[in-house]
Design a protein that fits this description.
globular; Rossmann fold; 208 residues
Length: 208
């Protein structure tokens, strides 16, 4: 499943570049807590991340997976080589140098498995979440999807990616995910309450 990366990677990166976007989940501690609550509540069989970057969140997933195997992909050869060296030796983590859409298609996970997806491969002109979500919805039966940099309605203070008309990470531009087959929820800064856990466990096709 792993691609082959060519070229060289500097192993002497300055410390400030190791986690240049604030480490795990871009430094958002509340999101880390939400993920930990989801893991305890849902007992995932597999965890899949698009956009390894430098491996900070990948490492967090591997250390807090509840026994599930972690799969992560990175399309940049330089970032992939950096992450591969940083994360070498972690037995429950597999890295692939692949485009995120090909990664999801080739993911070696049973389609009935309870799978957590973290989508973070978007950047400027490359905005694959629409296609990523379409693949997940068509291919997988039980999943929870968390999307990085997504707009929270009625919360103007929460930053999200907006690259112009038709290129926003929002329900306006990804309206197709609001279907009878999916449950969309916006998990704000607080840890899960029993109601939130019940919603996820009941629907099992959740975009958060």
């Amino acid at each position: 499943m792993n691609g082959v990366a060519r070229g060289r990677c500097s192993v002497a990166e300055p410390p400030e570049l190791l986690d240049s976007f604030g480490a795990t989940f871009n430094g958002q501690c509340f999101r880390q807590l939400i993920y930990l609550d989801l893991t305890l509540a849902c007992n995932f069989d597999a965890i899949a991340e698009t956009g390894t970057f430098r491996g900070s969140t990948s490492l967090f997933f591997a250390q807090n997976s509840g026994g599930a195997h972690v799969y992560s992909c990175e399309s940049s050869g330089r970032n992939f080589e950096f992450a591969k060296r940083r994360l070498r030796g972690i037995q429950n983590l597999s890295l692939s140098k692949l485009d995120s859409r090909e990664f999801i298609q080739r993911l070696d996970v049973p389609r009935q498995a309870r799978t957590f997806f973290y989508l973070d491969a978007h950047w400027e002109e490359s905005l694959p979440p629409r296609e990523e979500l379409d693949l997940i919805i068509r291919e997988f039966k039980q999943f929870v999807v968390m999307i990085d940099d997504f707009e929270i309605p009625n919360d103007p203070g929460y930053g999200f990616d907006d690259y112009g008309p038709g290129k926003r990470l929002s329900l306006r531009d990804l309206s197709f995910i609001v279907t009878t087959e999916l449950h969309v929820t916006f998990l704000r800064g607080l840890r899960f309450k029993n109601r939130d856990i019940g919603e996820v466990q009941s629907f099992w096709r959740v975009v958060a």
